[in-house]
């Protein structure tokens, strides 16, 4: 538990020095500078920590239960910031707003008293670069599984994020108190702070915070990944979320949790007449539940192993169930999934988990993810991502017992072991390492930078329409990416031609048609680096790069 609290706290500190916090820095500085009251910065941060923790634990579930928009609290927070800005510019307005509540405090209203409310508003506006710790907490909060450990972990994360912000607020106040000209013009200083808060709130309302953090490289991402994705951190996080991997490793079957039932499956493929399958119906069998999606290269590299196990161990009592949980909108279309299942030769049952019902029931976060269930319906082993196929097969054979007398399967492990360019999304919702600002949801003209792109950096040229999860080509649409990889893949949709160039040399032309899917752009005999340039015909769609 102490390890998990430490991971959450450090992750919060890193979040507070990442690009995510930069858009709210003017408010923190102005909020601290607006008053000489030494308690004001502490009130701001206390309000931020409390509101952030409360919203993370209960806000999402509450809004969902009431059927309200997910960004309602953020809109309320922006409105509150605008009101607070107005009270700083016009002190009499602050007096008028506080006057009805004087009977509660029996004191005169003061312009210094809104620090706590300012912090509460910031806690709702502040959108952290949430990693596995916060994702686990949010998932548990949304399902109502909130206990002492979840509250402590959320508080530790919020506290870690709040302390650097406290230093910033105190710094703004000390700067004000240390400069004589500011001390002698306190009212003017407060009004300037109010204008800064108001202008920043308006900018956030129009999405400037999202555009800013999207365009700015994530300079703390490697450090955050190292903290949150270390093996010890993953173990602690899985312990928080109730994972069964540690139980499987120790062989403590009697303490293994019962596997969740399949929930919210819209339809089934590869079953007689589309009839559903169930964990209860497979009692007496060993079941491997595989979460996947058909445009994910990591999932596709796992499929040959799953199919080999299905062939080798089905008669011995193994049942594999694929849970297709979509990542992109086109993966919600049943006919697209059906075509992919046929094209890929998947023969075991596949459930279409379009609304994430089974994903949430297993508290899953990864594509691919494998959950191994014993004959009594207990969760005995989990594995996230590619690789470790030998270990997974050993667990299958162990649970099958004496019936697993057949030779082990022999499928080559193609999991990349070298450092490659990371998965790169093209829509603005998760666009990273991008050269310039993007225009949301309408056509715009882009230009390649005159400088040399750094490794893993993207740039657009020509006319593009950038949507949350995809880009749509217009006239002379081109894309450049500085890569390091053996293999380059891209999810494409629409109909047209894509020209692939590497270091200015034409490599191939790809005809794109049919439902969106993963296309192989280039393969090299060894790990290579270079400048990839893609030239799109109009109306072609690009979603995400993956590399091997």
Folded structure, characterized:
- With 548 residues, this protein is of the alpha+beta class.
- It folds into three domains: 2-227, no CATH class; 242-403, Glutaredoxin; 424-547, Jelly Rolls.
- It has helices at residues 2-16, 25-33, 40-66, 72-89, 91-98, 102-105, 115-125, 132-142, 148-178, 180-184, 186-205, 208-215, 221-228, 231-241, 245-250, 297-313, 334-344, 357-361, 389-400; strands spanning 268-269, 286-292, 318-324, 350-352, 369-373, 379-384, 424-425, 444-446, 458-466, 471-473, 478-493, 496-502, 505-512, 517-536, 541-547.
- The strands form two sheets. Strands 7, 8, 9, 10, 11, 12, 13, 14 and 15 form a nine-stranded antiparallel beta sheet that branches.
- Mean pLDDT is 74; it is low at 101-113, 127-133, 179-186, 209-232 and 240-254.
């Amino acid at each position: 538990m102490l390890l998990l609290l430490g991971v959450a706290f450090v992750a919060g500190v890193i979040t507070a020095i990442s690009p995510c916090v930069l858009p709210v820095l003017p408010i923190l500085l102005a909020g601290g500078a607006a008053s000489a009251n030494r308690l004001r910065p502490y009130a701001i941060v206390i309000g931020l920590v409390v509101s952030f923790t409360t919203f993370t634990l209960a806000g999402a579930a509450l809004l969902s239960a009431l059927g309200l928009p997910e960004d309602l609290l953020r809109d309320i927070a922006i409105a509150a910031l605008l009101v607070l800005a107005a009270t700083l510019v016009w002190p009499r307005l602050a007096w008028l707003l506080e006057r009805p509540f004087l009977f509660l405090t029996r004191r005169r209203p003061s312009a210094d008293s809104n620090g706590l409310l300012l912090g509460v508003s910031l806690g709702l506006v502040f959108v952290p670069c949430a990693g596995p710790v916060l994702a686990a907490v949010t998932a548990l909060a949304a399902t109502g599984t909130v206990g002492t450990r979840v509250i402590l972990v959320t508080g530790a994360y919020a506290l870690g994020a709040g302390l650097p912000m406290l230093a910033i607020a105190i710094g703004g106040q000390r700067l004000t108190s240390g400069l004589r000209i500011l001390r002698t013009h306190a009212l003017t200083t407060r009004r300037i702070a109010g204008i800064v808060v108001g202008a920043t709130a308006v900018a956030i309302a129009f999405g400037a915070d999202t555009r800013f953090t999207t365009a700015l490289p994530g300079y703390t991402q490697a450090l955050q990944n190292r903290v949150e994705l270390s093996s010890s951190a993953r173990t602690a996080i899985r312990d928080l979320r109730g994972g069964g991997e540690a139980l499987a490793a120790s062989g403590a079957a009697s303490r293994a949790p019962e596997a969740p039932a399949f929930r919210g499956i819209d339809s089934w493929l590869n079953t007689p007449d589309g009839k559903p399958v169930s964990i209860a119906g497979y009692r007496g069998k060993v079941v491997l539940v595989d979460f996947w999606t058909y445009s994910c290269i990591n999932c596709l590299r796992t499929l040959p192993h799953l199919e080999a196990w299905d062939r080798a161990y089905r008669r011995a009592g193994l049942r594999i169930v694929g849970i297709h949980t979509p990542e992109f909108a086109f993966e919600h279309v049943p006919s697209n999934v059906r075509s992919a299942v046929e094209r890929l030769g998947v023969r075991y049952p596949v459930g279409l988990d379009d609304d994430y019902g089974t994903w949430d029931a297993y508290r899953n976060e990864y594509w691919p993810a494998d959950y191994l269930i014993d004959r009594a319906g207990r969760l005995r082993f989990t594995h996230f991502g590619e690789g470790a196929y030998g270990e997974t097969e050993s667990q299958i054979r162990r649970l099958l017992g004496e019936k697993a007398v057949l030779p082990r399967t022999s499928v080559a492990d193609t999991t990349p072991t070298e450092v490659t360019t990371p998965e790169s999304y093209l829509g603005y919702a998760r666009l990273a390492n991008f050269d310039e600002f993007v225009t949301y949801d309408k056509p715009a003209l882009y230009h390649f930078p005159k400088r040399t792109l750094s490794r893993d950096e993207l740039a657009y040229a020509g006319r593009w329409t950038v949507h949350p999860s995809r880009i749509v080509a217009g006239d002379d649409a081109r894309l450049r990416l500085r890569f390091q990889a053996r293999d380059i893949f891209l999810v494409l949709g629409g109909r047209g031609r894509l020209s692939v160039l590497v270091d200015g040399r034409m490599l191939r032309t790809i005809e794109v048609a049919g439902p969106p899917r993963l296309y192989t752009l280039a393969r090299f005999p060894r790990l290579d680096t270079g400048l990839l340039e893609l030239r799109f015909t109009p109306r072609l769609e690009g979603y995400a790069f993956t590399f091997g």
